[in-house]
């Protein structure tokens, strides 16, 4: 089983304990995973699915399966490929300052009053976490911080986020340090401050309610716990131009009161107040919906509960606390103090928005995040998801891209959904059930590691009906989806055709290629052929190795010593053969002859044809025909042996066994060379009889020895009586048992011998024709009769004559 083993901190080796398959590498942050696949050993196939499974077991997420499969298919080994990507963390935004005034070189100095908020520091952002390719969270780097430094006539809040003016003067800003140059003749009092911090703040705002909202954040008080005074009053209080407004806790009296009272009176005189109806104003904050009611001027009408409720209904405000609403209306003399009456409302004019653009073919969707206006809330992730659903975008959504866009609040197009393309099915594959690549020789070793260079396995035999190629059908593929959820049909993989060639056919199911006859399977020009004839252009030697073929073998040269040729059909050899092994289901034809050197062995299921046979063991179930001579060989023929050449046709030496007849020009030699001829009864039956006689004689000899040993032990037992040793008694009993077994066995051998002799005797064959000379020294066995030739005979025939071997004139005898 494959698994990854650590090689170093960021590299791992894929191995099964013996062979290494791939190298897995991570970058320093582990947001990138790279894979290098090693080339296979000995041409073995690499299983992409097993590598992908090993990567998943290692915890790698969102693997690019296509590139792994393509790399293996295209054999792009030893190349580093990117297979998975995580998300790099996004560093938090750096801290920055709001409400900066009097920056150097910006023109005339700005006049500041005590308690005025000079700057608010927005803390550094925490950033967005990253994710490794194995799913671990990467903590982002926090944004860079800054520190506000208080100078003359300024103070910094305990939390280090706000800086205030402590006196009248002109503000200067140098780097992070704020100072105020005191204005002559003006000075603040200690009543405004507590431990150097203001009990009130001066902010710039468009309205009293907005000033209270800002002041609430700065003084850490609820808006309804605050009061305020304005420096400038326009005709419409709830739509005042942006002004300096002092915000302070309810009930607090300060030195600013008299000063600003005088300014307000001056303004009222200036404005020439007329009769005006009361007005109301809603303030939608993240803490809830606030209502401010301003009383009428002169003889104007006051705001009623019905006025406010009608407006609420018109705007569609929800979750309004009616009791609080009633109290606010009844206490309208509070002069515009905002009071909470319900939860935060959606305000289309102010809130941030999500806009979705969908491609006409529903292949992708782009999102725009529109930031909120002043007083509005930013669009949320949930808003974005709802907007996608409203546009029927339900599939292929990249939630990470949605979350990032919502977080950044930038009004730029972001691709947030893309159609899931269908995955095409795998291409149909052909699985060859035979060795296609013949360029490599497969050498065979024995148990001692020695290589047999004669067994090259260059020929691959197949039998009729054998499956040669299996077609794996193309994959169906995986359907895709448009972003509206509609399915994109899957595409089946490309199909391939079975490579039909000679003597092959396609199975009924169309998925297998089958051989129609026995022979050699070959892949030629992308077609599979089965050939029932194998032609060897030259000799059978180390270049060809031994030949084993289901069919007929044609050899244009010779068969060298110590090589083997086996064929289910015929074997045809143009030249000679040495001390080799030939076996044919049909016949063997040798253009020259057999120089066996005492070790050659030939077998034919039908006939054997040769010019000569020397020092070999030859067997044919049919006829053996030789044109010149058979010398010092053991030759068995089921039917006949024919040596009828015009010049020669001799049998000299050896042992010849034939079922029917022998025809030869000469048998034996002038020097009296011993030659054994046996005719009548098949060679196999005669061989069985010979083997049985040999075993019978061996057991007879053993039986005689046992009889003598038993006789000796019995005599000693009589002499020694009670003193006869126990071990000798045991030996005596063992010999007696062996004697009895051998006796039964010899009786059975006798019956078998008689049966074989009867088969030989009753055979129809048994004739020897010698057209020229039968030399003395030849031993003739015809059926069960034997004749030793003492003199030379010319032109004779030999055959059965009663229980003897008869000698007849040439051609004047018949079997029967």
Could you walk me through the main structural features you see in this protein, from its secondary elements to its overall organization?
- The chain has 816 residues and is of the alpha/beta class.
- Helix content is 20%, strand content 34%.
- The protein is built from ten helices and 58 strands.
- The strands form 13 sheets. It has a 21-stranded mixed sheet that branches. It has a five-stranded antiparallel sheet with strand order 1-2-3-4-5, covered by helices on one side.
- Helix 9 packs antiparallel against helix 10 (726-761).
- The radius of gyration is 58 Å and the shape is rod-shaped.
- Residues 102-108 and 232-241 have low confidence and may be disordered.
Shape: rod-shaped
Profile the largest sheet.
21 strands, mixed
Strand % is 25-35%
Radius of gyration over C-alpha positions, nearest whole angstrom? 58 Å
Our measurement of the CA-to-CA distance between the termini, rounded to an integer number of angstroms, reads 74 Å
Range of helix content = 10-25%
Number of helices: 10
Average of pLDDT: 82
Spell out the blueprint of helices and strands.
Blueprint: E1 3-8, E2 11-15, E3 20-26, E4 32-37, H1 48-57, H2 65-73, E5 80-85, E6 96-98, E7 111-112, E8 117-122, E9 130-131, E10 137-138, E11 149-150, E12 154-156, E13 162-165, E14 169-174, E15 177-182, E16 193-194, E17 197-198, E18 201-205, H3 208-219, E19 226-230, E20 243-249, H4 256-271, E21 279-285, E22 288-294, H5 305-315, H6 322-330, E23 339-342, E24 353-358, E25 364-370, H7 381-390, H8 399-408, E26 414-418, E27 429-432, E28 444-445, E29 451-452, E30 461-462, E31 467-472, E32 480-481, E33 487-488, E34 504-506, E35 512-515, E36 519-524, E37 527-531, E38 533-536, E39 547-549, E40 552-555, E41 564-567, E42 571-573, E43 581-584, E44 588-590, E45 593-604, E46 608-620, E47 624-631, E48 634-637, E49 640-643, E50 650-652, E51 655-658, E52 661-667, E53 675-679, H9 683-720, H10 726-761, E54 767-774, E55 778-782, E56 785-788, E57 793-801, E58 804-809
Helix pairs in contact: 9-10
């Amino acid at each position: 089983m494959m698994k990854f083993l650590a090689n170093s901190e960021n590299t791992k080796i894929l191995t099964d304990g013996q062979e290494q398959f791939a190298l897995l590498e991570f970058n320093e942050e582990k947001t990138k995973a790279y894979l290098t696949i090693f080339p296979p050993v000995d041409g073995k196939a690499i299983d992409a699915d097993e590598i992908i499974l090993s990567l998943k077991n290692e915890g790698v997420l969102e693997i690019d399966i296509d590139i792994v499969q393509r790399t293996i298919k295209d054999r792009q080994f030893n190349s580093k490929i990117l297979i998975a990507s995580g998300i790099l963390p996004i560093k938090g935004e750096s801290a920055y300052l709001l409400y900066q005034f009097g920056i150097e070189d910006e023109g005339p100095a700005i006049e500041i009053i005590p308690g005025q908020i000079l700057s608010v520091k927005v803390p550094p952002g925490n950033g967005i976490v990253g994710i490794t390719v194995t799913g671990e969270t990467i903590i982002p780097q926090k944004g860079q911080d800054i520190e506000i430094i208080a100078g003359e006539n300024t103070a910094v809040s305990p939390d280090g986020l706000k800086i205030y003016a402590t006196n009248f003067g002109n503000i200067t800003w140098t780097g992070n340090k704020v100072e105020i140059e005191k204005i002559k003749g003006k000075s603040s009092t200690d009543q405004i401050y507590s431990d150097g911090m203001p009990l009130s703040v001066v902010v710039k705002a468009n309205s009293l309610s907005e000033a209270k909202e800002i002041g609430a954040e700065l003084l850490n008080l609820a808006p309804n716990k605050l009061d305020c005074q304005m420096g400038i009053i326009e005709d419409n209080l709830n739509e005042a131009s942006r002004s300096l407004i002092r915000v302070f806790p309810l009930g607090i009296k300060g030195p600013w009161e008299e000063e600003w009272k005088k300014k307000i009176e001056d303004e009222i005189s200036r404005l020439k107040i007329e009769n005006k109806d009361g007005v109301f104003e809603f303030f939608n904050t993240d803490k809830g919906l606030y209502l401010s009611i301003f009383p009428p001027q002169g003889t104007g009408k006051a705001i009623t509960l019905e006025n406010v409720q009608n407006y609420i209904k018109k705007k569609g405000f929800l979750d309004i606390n009616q009791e609080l609403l009633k109290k606010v209306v009844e206490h309208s003399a509070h002069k515009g103090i905002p009071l909470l009456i319900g939860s935060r409302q959606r305000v289309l004019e102010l809130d941030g928005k999500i806009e979705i653009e969908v491609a006409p073919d529903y292949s992708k969707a782009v999102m725009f995040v529109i930031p909120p206006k002043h007083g509005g809330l930013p669009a949320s992730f949930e808003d974005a998801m709802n907007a996608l659903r409203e546009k029927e975008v339900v599939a292929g959504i990249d939630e990470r891209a949605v979350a990032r866009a919502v977080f950044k609040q930038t009004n730029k197009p972001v691709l947030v959904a893309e159609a899931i393309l269908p995955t095409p099915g795998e291409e149909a594959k052909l699985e060859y059930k035979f060795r296609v690549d013949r360029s490599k020789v497969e050498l065979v070793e024995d148990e001692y590691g020695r290589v047999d260079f004669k067994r090259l396995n260059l020929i691959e035999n197949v039998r009729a009906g054998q499956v040669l190629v299996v077609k794996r059908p193309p994959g169906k593929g995986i359907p895709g989806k448009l972003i509206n959820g509609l399915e994109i049909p899957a595409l089946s993989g490309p199909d391939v055709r079975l490579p039909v060639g000679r003597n092959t056919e396609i199975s009924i199911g169309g998925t297998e290629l089958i051989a129609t006859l026995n022979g050699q399977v070959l892949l030629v020009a992308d077609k599979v052929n089965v050939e029932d004839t194998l032609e060897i252009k030259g000799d059978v030697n180390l270049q060809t190795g031994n030949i084993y073929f289901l069919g007929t073998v044609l050899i244009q040269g010779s068969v060298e010593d110590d090589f083997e040729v086996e064929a289910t059909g015929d074997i045809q050899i143009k030249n000679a053969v040495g001390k080799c092994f030939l076996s044919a289901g049909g016949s063997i034809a040798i253009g020259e002859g057999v120089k066996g050197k005492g070790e050659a062995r030939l077998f034919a299921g039908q006939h054997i044809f040769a010019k000569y046979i020397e020092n070999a063991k030859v067997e044919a179930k049919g006829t053996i025909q030789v044109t010149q001579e058979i010398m010092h060989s053991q030759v068995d023929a089921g039917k006949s042996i024919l040596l009828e050449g015009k010049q020669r046709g001799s049998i000299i030496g050896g042992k010849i066994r034939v079922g029917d007849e022998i025809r030869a020009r000469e048998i034996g030699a002038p020097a009296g060379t011993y030659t054994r001829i046996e005719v009548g009864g098949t060679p196999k039956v005669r061989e069985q009889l010979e083997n049985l006689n040999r075993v019978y004689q061996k057991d007879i000899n053993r039986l005689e020895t046992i009889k003598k040993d038993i006789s000796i032990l019995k005599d000693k037992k009589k002499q020694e009586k009670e003193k006869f040793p126990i071990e000798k008694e045991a030996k005596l009993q063992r010999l007696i048992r062996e004697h009895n077994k051998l006796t039964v066995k010899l009786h059975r051998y006798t019956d078998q011998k008689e049966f074989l002799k009867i088969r030989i005797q009753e055979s129809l064959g048994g004739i020897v024709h010698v057209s020229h000379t039968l030399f003395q020294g030849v031993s003739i066995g015809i059926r069960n009769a034997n004749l030793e030739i003492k003199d030379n005979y010319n032109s004779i025939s030999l055959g059965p004559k009663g229980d003897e071997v008869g000698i007849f004139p040439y051609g004047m005898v018949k079997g029967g």
